């Protein structure tokens, strides 16, 4: 690898590893699995030649993280897991109710809300990442917000 490619990859890891981790964690709900997916995503970036992704790198990394997370969940549903340690309960914070309610939303609603409110993407950008039209994404966000509100009021 040349120096420019190494710098590009280092910058990508520095700038987007938190985002990729959060996307993976949203699916797996497990820190170790999200870290594994994070490594896979950046390994793919190195392998696929990063020059191809230009200004769309963040969106590409999110899409790969979503796909890898789905692959992981499909594979984990087909295999039995054996734990060698007793997991510790996770501390609850002020936002745990919101995260629990988000977990009840359908995947596409959850992704749209996450990308819009947490990553700051517009409806048009989300449509490019998840597929669909800008209008459909706008409706999805509105409906998802309403569902989330109902879950939180229950």
Written account of the structure:
The protein is an all-alpha fold. Helix content is 74%, strand content 0%. The chain is built from 7 helices and no strands. It has helices at residues 3-28, 31-47, 57-78, 96-104, 107-118, 123-130, 134-153. Helix 1 (3-28) runs antiparallel to helix 2 and helix 2 (31-47) packs across helix 3 (57-78). The relative contact order is 0.10. One of its GO terms (biological process) is DNA-templated transcription initiation. One of its GO terms (molecular function) is DNA binding. It comes from Candidatus Coproplasma avicola. It holds the Pfam family Sigma70_r2.
Characteristics of this structure?
mainly alpha; 7 helices; 74% helix; globular; 0% strand; 154 residues
Order of helices and strands: HHHHHHH
The stretches of 5 or more residues where confidence is low (pLDDT under 50) are 82-89
Gap between N and C termini: 54 Å
Look at the helices and sheets and give the structural class: mainly alpha
Largest sheet: none
Approximate strand percentage: under 5%
Average per-residue pLDDT, rounded, comes to: 82
Number of strands: 0
Number of helices: 7
List the helices and strands and how they pair.
Layout lengths: L2 H26 L2 H17 L9 H22 L17 H9 L2 H12 L4 H8 L3 H20 L1
Helix pairs in contact: 1-2, 1-3, 2-3, 3-6, 5-7, 6-7
